[in-house]
Design a protein that fits this description.
By secondary structure, the protein is mostly helical. The chain is about 75% helix and about 0% strand. The model has no long low-confidence stretch (mean pLDDT about 75). The chain contains eight helices and no strands.
Length: about 200
């Protein structure tokens, strides 16, 4: 009895008990009415806008390819990442367009490292999500997957920057920079993976 009185006098003890009792009654009522009252239909899962049909981005069947493909898709399907990626690419492309002659090459090389580093950071952060931690990935597979994912994510932005940088001088140079963007992005992703 003294302990009961002390419990009732304790600050904030009464309302949580009432809330728990109310929730228990509502659960009981929902169980009884489940067959009678038609509830809300569960939302049907829609296919994502980007890569909705699960097309492969990274080719191959090994563990690192599958992991890299999953990382690329999970990064691409986040709207916030798209916005930041577009903003960074637009700023770097505008800077490449406005810079004089040889500075285009310097900015293009810097853009390759910036995009590869940023995409690897985003992919590494995604790799720490609970879904990816459910599987036992080896460290070698993780490093390979991060390199492949950062390469696949950096190529489009770097190709656009190269096209703008080279195109501001001459069209053939812009097309050459567009073609050279693929090996440049691969080299940047490889070096960033080794260093970071």
């Amino acid at each position: 009895v003294p302990l009961g009185r002390r419990r009732l006098r304790a600050a904030g003890a009464f309302y949580p008990d009432v809330q728990r009792e109310r929730e228990a009654r509502l659960k009981l009522a929902s169980l009884m009415l489940r067959g009678i009252v038609e509830g809300k239909k569960p939302r049907q899962r829609r296919a994502p806008l980007v890569l909705g049909r699960s097309q492969r981005v990274v080719r191959g069947t090994g563990a690192s390819e599958v992991l890299a493909d999953s990382l690329v898709k999970s990064v691409l399907r986040r709207p916030g990442q798209w916005k930041l990626y577009a903003q960074l690419t637009a700023v770097l492309a505008f800077a490449a367009w406005r810079l004089p002659g040889p500075m285009h090459v310097v900015l293009w090389a810097v853009a390759a490292f910036v995009l590869a580093y940023w995409m690897k950071s985003v992919a590494r952060e995604t790799l720490g999500a609970s879904f990816f931690r459910m599987f036992a990935w080896s460290e070698v597979s993780k490093q390979e997957a991060l390199r492949k994912a950062s390469f696949a994510l950096a190529v489009p932005g770097l190709a656009l920057i190269g096209l703008v940088a080279g195109g501001s001088i001459s069209l053939p140079l812009g097309i050459a920079a567009l073609v050279l963007s693929v090996p440049a992005a691969y080299a940047a992703a490889f070096l960033v993976t080794i260093w970071y």
